[in-house]
From TrEMBL:
<dbReference type="InterPro" id="IPR028989">
    <property type="entry name" value="RimP_N"/>
</dbReference>
<comment type="similarity">
    <text>Belongs to the RimP family.</text>
</comment>
<dbReference type="GO" id="GO:0006412">
    <property type="term" value="P:translation"/>
</dbReference>
<dbReference type="Pfam" id="PF02576">
    <property type="entry name" value="RimP_N"/>
</dbReference>
<keyword id="KW-0690">Ribosome biogenesis</keyword>
<dbReference type="InterPro" id="IPR003728">
    <property type="entry name" value="Ribosome_maturation_RimP"/>
</dbReference>
<keyword id="KW-0963">Cytoplasm</keyword>
<feature type="domain" description="Ribosome maturation factor RimP N-terminal">
    <location>
        <begin position="19"/>
        <end position="76"/>
    </location>
</feature>
<dbReference type="GO" id="GO:0005829">
    <property type="term" value="C:cytosol"/>
</dbReference>
<feature type="domain" description="Ribosome maturation factor RimP C-terminal">
    <location>
        <begin position="79"/>
        <end position="156"/>
    </location>
</feature>
<dbReference type="InterPro" id="IPR035956">
    <property type="entry name" value="RimP_N_sf"/>
</dbReference>
<dbReference type="InterPro" id="IPR036847">
    <property type="entry name" value="RimP_C_sf"/>
</dbReference>
<protein>
    <recommendedName>
        <fullName>Ribosome maturation factor RimP</fullName>
    </recommendedName>
</protein>
<dbReference type="InterPro" id="IPR028998">
    <property type="entry name" value="RimP_C"/>
</dbReference>
<dbReference type="GO" id="GO:0000028">
    <property type="term" value="P:ribosomal small subunit assembly"/>
</dbReference>
<dbReference type="Pfam" id="PF17384">
    <property type="entry name" value="DUF150_C"/>
</dbReference>
<comment type="function">
    <text>Required for maturation of 30S ribosomal subunits.</text>
</comment>
Amino acid sequence: MVDLFALTKNALHGIANDIDLVNIERLSSGVLRVIIDKTNGVCIDDCELVSRHLLCVFAAENIDYKQLEISSPGTDRPLHSESDFIRFAGERIALKLNDSLDGRKVFNGILRLQNPLNSNDISSRSTMFSIEFSDNESKNNLKVINFNIDDVCYAKLDPVLDFKGKKR
């Protein structure tokens, strides 16, 4: 059986090195959803390019689906890999840990990189991160917890969106 994620990731590297594969979802309706991202954001031209290329790759590999859907991860992009966490250091995230800390598993705050890697090998899993958040009781009291990727159950970007145009 073909590893669809690996196949798609390799196919994307064949057309553009700056397009990252975020996720692939197979829906029960036969939709195959491929979620892509890149440093400066995904535009419609990127989705069109990826769609045309993957149609050919998936046909050659006999991948079964009814409809192919290519999209960006949106404003609440999930963070899966250590490279995602490194890329989005300094951004606001929602984080759920596998085990509770001080009776809590879910935190919303600013992602910080604790110890940058000494080499370009991001697969070493040695990078420590932290999240800086306000205590519920006192909004002025900032707290920090440290974690590594193995501690994370789920993480996603958690931007504060202001549709009224007011600066905060």
